[in-house]
Automatic annotation (TrEMBL):
Species name: Daucus carota subsp. sativus
Keyword presence, Repeat: yes
GO molecular function: RNA binding
Residue ranges annotated for the K Homology domain, each copy included: 33-106, 118-191, 237-310
Highest rank taxon of the organism: Eukaryota
Record's keyword terms, sorted: Repeat
Protein name (database record): K Homology domain-containing protein
Amino acid sequence: MQSSDSVADNISPRHIESSLGTSHHTNFKQSNEVSYLKFLVSNAEAGAVIGKGGSIISDLRLQSETFIQLSNNYEFFPGTANRIILVSGQIDCVIKAVELILEKFRNETYDAEGKDEPSSKVRLVVPYSCCGAIIGRRGSTIKSFVELSQAGIRISSPKDLYAGLSDRLVTVVGTISEQMRAIDLILLKLSGNPYYTQSMNVPFSYAGYNVVHYYAVGAKMFNNMYQSNYRQNKEGEGNSVTIGVADEHIGLVLGRGGRNLRRISQISEARIKVSNRNDFISGTTDRKVTITGSERAICVAEDMIMRKLDSAVEHH
């Protein structure tokens, strides 16, 4: 896994100039690899991006040479009233598209005459397992990003996650120039992460909070190391999540003599049951792990399980 301590290794001279206000774009190397960025918009902002008969979104796609998708009407990111935009393309094209979209929002709400540009916020959607790369050891990476961009950057707490949800929100606050410098740095950091690219390749997977987590070990990609299916029962019966964990990694969840499982259950206050050997989710070799309790208890338990599974990735 790439170290997140040395931020300078990923920052070009042009970007260092950008922190002084001369430019806000990172000097990306030309690459044919596809990059992705998801962020949230209000219904009104979504309408502004689409335009009458889709005219504006078509123009944005042409100008930026990217593919821009929006979640359906009323298909919101869990816990918000915001729709999701997914921009995909070469990394410099993705950055251009995001800037065009943010500038459109600003121009529709801000009268520039005689006034300083106000700060605004944009919320990026980032897979949980990739947030460590943005934070860095003891927060070193995110601190460097804040210093270079002059934007405020905040990552939502794991306790704010909905049960079964694997994404966190990265909120970037500042002027558009400050936001774009921060987004440059964040996307550059994430685009080299195979887990990020694979996860973002699934456009919108929030209906019912059914989420698939993608992991890579070496060159082997697999999407069933961790799967989640959330079910909210009737009042008084508690909530239940059944997740699938690859059989080869179930030991990380159980621990020696079931020690890890007991600890997760005690801390989260959730009831956790692991299926017997050879009792797999249909069509897979994934063991069934059923978590029952309050939404908060399930969230804490899933968070702890994800951390155990993350360690499998980090050691390959």
